[in-house]
Design brief:
Length: 144
C-alpha cells in the first residue's frame, strides 16, 4: 500500500477498520509528518493498537474505538482499508453522500463499488491480490 500512498500529498491518512494496528502503526512510523488515524470497533485489537502506539511513542497516530461508518471522515486526505464487500459498499455510499474534498482511497483486495480505480497493483502473495487506488473528487459522482 505504501507505493500507492507515495504521491497522495501530506494530509491525514485514515485507516478504516484498523484491526490490531499493523498498517496504521507502520504508516505512522514511515510517515512521521502525517497524521494517521485508525478506526476499530473491536475492543482487544483496539487496545493492543493503543498500547503499541504508546510504547513506540507515535504522536502522529490516533486510534479510535468507533465505527468509521458513524464517524466524521471529512478531515481525511487518504483512506486505506482492507474491508469486506459489504463494508466497501457502505463506505462507497458514505463517501458519495458526504465527501466535500478531493482525496484518495486505497483498498487491499476489495474494489470500491461505483468508482473507477486510477491505479491497481498486484501484491506478490499467494493470491496475487489486487490493491486499488481511487482518486476521490469533490463534486464528481461515482461511475455506474
Amino acid at each position: 500500500m505504501a507505493e500507492l500512498l507515495a504521491d497522495t500529498g501530506s494530509g491525514p491518512v485514515y485507516e478504516l477498520g484498523s484491526g490490531w494496528g499493523g498498517l496504521a502503526i507502520g504508516l505512522a512510523k514511515k510517515y512521521p509528518n502525517r497524521q494517521i488515524v485508525g478506526y476499530e470497533v473491536s475492543f482487544f485489537p483496539w487496545l493492543v493498537s493503543v498500547v503499541v502506539k504508546r510504547v513506540l511513542g507515535l504522536g502522529n497516530l490516533v486510534i479510535y474505538r468507533r465505527n468509521f461508518l458513524l464517524a466524521d471522515l471529512s478531515a481525511a486526505d487518504v483512506f486505506v482499508c482492507f474491508l469486506d464487500t459489504g463494508n466497501m459498499r457502505a463506505i462507497s455510499h458514505k463517501l458519495s453522500a458526504e465527501r466535500s474534498r478531493d482525496g484518495f482511497l486505497i483498498s487491499n483486495f476489495f474494489a470500491l463499488p461505483s468508482f473507477e480505480a486510477d491505479n491497481v497493483i498486484k501484491i506478490d502473495d499467494l493470491y496475487t491480490s489486487p490493491v486499488y487506488r481511487y482518486q476521490l473528487r469533490r463534486g464528481i459522482a461515482p461511475t455506474g
